[in-house]
Amino acid sequence: MLYHLFHYLESFDIPGARLFDYLTFRSGFALILSLFIGIVIGRRIIDTLKGKQMCDKERDASEGGNKAKQGTPTMGGIIIIISILVPCLLLGKLNNVYMVLMIVSTLWCGALGFADDYIKVFHHHKEGLKGKFKIVGQVGLGLIVGLTMYLSPAIVMNENVSVTNRQTNELVVTHKTEAVKATKSTIPFVKNHNFDYSYFTRWMGPYAQAGGWVLVILVTIFVVAAVSNGANLTDGVDGLATGTSAIIGVALAIMCYLGGNVIYASYLNIMYIPDSGELVVYAAAFIGATIGFLWYNSHPAQVFMGDTGSLCLGGIIAVFAILIRKEWLLPVLCGIFLVEEGAVMLQVPVCKYFKRKTGHDKRLFKMTPLHHHFTVPNDKLKWDYVIKTPQNPIPEQKVVMRFFLVAIFLAVITFVTLKIR
């Protein structure tokens, strides 16, 4: 709203009104504002949650019997959502389709997570919202994003093209002058970094492009479900999901800024996406919100984000990456989420295998999600496990810090892949 107000005031030559035309100014302002809201408003929301006894009493069971965390308020994801939305509504271009989609995605995922937490806290159902309803919600968001990308004339791209200068034999990267709708995305390790989904639907002849968009929508649904569930599983020890998401947010903000600037897009030889640079404002608010929440969520946590926050963070990361056509970089960038999700998927069949073969309760890890494998004391377990490392439990703070270092390393690797062909 402030952007549109000051854009109007420019016609009256109001000093300083042009500042809001600069993406960097609005992004910096959004980061500071979201951080301020998270810290200041967060304290009041935590007190409110405590007063209404909105605590997840089942949480200590999932953390290997850590009763020290019992009574800590949950549903703190509300702080993150407010800290993101307020700066975006004030400083973003509300007629930009990318910004609108991110706001809708934030509200959608937040509502889905809130419903899950509400059932856990007030109806005392440990499982929360049934899995099928979560899937329906995630599929619904994937359809909204995918169909909007297909139908909106504002979501286009300029493909990057490599041309060799015959005189100097130098490779020059340019972009096609015409912005077009395309089913292309960025992938690493290949020339021009472009992958066209319609490649798999060539057999459809004149309908190949339409078939490509069907694949785009299906991939969108899968990525939203996978990343949001991965973030949800990562939320288990103080600050882990919050800090990891902040690191991923920084990487996505940089990629968004580069892909939304034709000069930098040419340098990296990636597609140029007009008007997507507005998402840098959203990313800045996202980073500020996660850091602001980490103020209270770091060990010892004064509040847990609950599914209100974790499902929302994962959904935001997924949709953001899809809109800037970087979803194929997520397996590296969101490697922490992927490993956490993979550990849970492996734990169940391995446990069933040993139960059927030996009749004893034996598992692959001490406990899943994976971060619990490092933190749970051995004397708390009533079962055997395959992976014995580490022999002794590692302090929670050290596990979180090491996961942060891995997340930073993965973010760096993500950028390196864009320069390797």
Question: Would you write up a description of this structure?
Answer:
With 421 residues, this protein is mainly alpha-helical. It has a domain at 19-159 and 190-330. The chain contains 15 helices and 6 strands. The longest helix is centred in the first third of the chain and has 29 residues, at 23-51.
Taking the sheet with the most strands, its summary is:
2 strands, antiparallel
What form results from the Cα inertia axes? globular
- Taking pLDDT < 50 over at least 5 consecutive residues as the criterion, the unreliable ranges are 60-65
For the record, give the distance between the C-alpha atoms at the N and C termini, rounded to a whole number.
Answer: 43 Å
Strand content: under 5%
Q: SSE string, helix = H, strand = E?
A: HHHHHHEEEEHHHHHHHEHEH
- Quick one: how many beta strands? 6
Q: Which value, in Å, is the CA radius of gyration?
A: 23 Å
Helix content: 55-70%
Note the total helix count: 15
Biggest sheet, strands in spatial order?
Answer: 1-2
Mean of residue pLDDT values: 87
What structural category do the secondary elements indicate?
A: mainly alpha
